[in-house]
Backbone:
């Protein structure tokens, strides 16, 4: 948090942090607010406190572009521990069941493969999903459990491998935003006739952002704001078109599709446009 009475630094851009275990995503936001001298910091999707890895944050005007990162595909690595189920589906919860299990690598791989593709998941009670205005993890702390509608997600890759411990397998998952990895781990345990939970979860990428881009929350590197849109194609325009973009005008017919980062003279990021019914239309204008 910026100190009271101190003016906002006005810094804008993109920060990629390798979140450490024990910190919430909001903890990282607070650290950046203090170190960068601005209240204008937000993140593009939470990580559980015990999880580590890539957290993408917007600073200043970068917060206006978080929506273009939040829905990006993500990749994770972690471990499935067979024979023990927990209340939170991960190592932080209380043990709710134990089984004698001896799954083979082939059995685990086949069970995991059954969850690849378009599937539906029921959000865990420890998630941040809101039901009737209250977050599920708040209800869980009150000892309540409520019905949760299943949500569609897509799992593009779910690979497993044995470790030196016969009850522990690594997992490597690429999935759509909103996928619960702890549920994928627990579901494989159930599919094999027992139980399992997740531990050592690490997010290795968010869209085009990887661990190679990530730094410390206490010593952040602020990337140019255009980096928030790294996953979008760039469309460079001249001054005449830039003036139209600044006032949010449509840019006429387009044979393409999707979203574009509109960049004006001097490499200035002006807006995000998207093709709607064949016309380039503003989705987010940053200047003007």
Residues:
């Amino acid at each position: 948090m910026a100190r009271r009475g101190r003016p906002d630094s006005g810094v804008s851009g993109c920060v990629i942090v390798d979140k450490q275990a024990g910190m919430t995503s909001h903890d990282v936001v607070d650290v950046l607010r203090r170190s960068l001298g601005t209240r204008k910091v937000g993140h593009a999707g939470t990580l559980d406190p015990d999880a580590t890895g890539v957290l993408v944050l917007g600073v200043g005007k970068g917060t206006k572009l978080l929506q273009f990162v939040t829905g990006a595909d993500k990749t994770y690595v972690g471990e499935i521990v067979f024979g023990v189920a927990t209340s939170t589906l991960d190592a932080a919860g209380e043990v709710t069941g134990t089984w004698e299990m001896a799954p083979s690598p082939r059995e685990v791989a086949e069970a995991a493969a059954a969850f690849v593709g378009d599937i539906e998941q029921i959000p865990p009670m420890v998630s941040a999903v809101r039901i009737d205005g209250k977050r599920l993890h708040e209800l869980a702390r009150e000892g309540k459990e409520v019905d949760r509608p299943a949500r569609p997600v897509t799992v593009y890759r779910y690979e497993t491998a044995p470790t030196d411990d016969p009850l522990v397998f690594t997992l490597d998952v690429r999935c759509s935003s909103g996928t619960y990895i702890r549920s994928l781990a627990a579901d494989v345990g159930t599919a094999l006739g027992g139980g399992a939970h997740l531990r050592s979860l690490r997010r290795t990428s968010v869209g085009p952002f990887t661990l190679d881009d990530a730094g410390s929350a206490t010593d952040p590197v602020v990337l140019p704001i255009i980096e928030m849109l790294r996953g979008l194609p760039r469309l460079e325009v001249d001054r005449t078109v830039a003036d139209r973009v600044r006032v949010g005008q449509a840019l006429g017919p387009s044979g393409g599709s999707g979203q574009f980062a509109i960049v004006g003279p001097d490499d200035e990021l002006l807006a995000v446009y998207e093709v709607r019914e064949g016309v380039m239309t503003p989705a987010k204008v940053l200047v003007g």
Observations:
- The helical segments are 25-36, 67-70, 105-113, 136-141, 181-191, 239-246.
- Residues 227 and 242 are 20 Å apart (CA to CA).
- The chain has three domains: 13-72+207-229, 74-206, 234-285.
- The chain is about 15% helix and 35% strand.
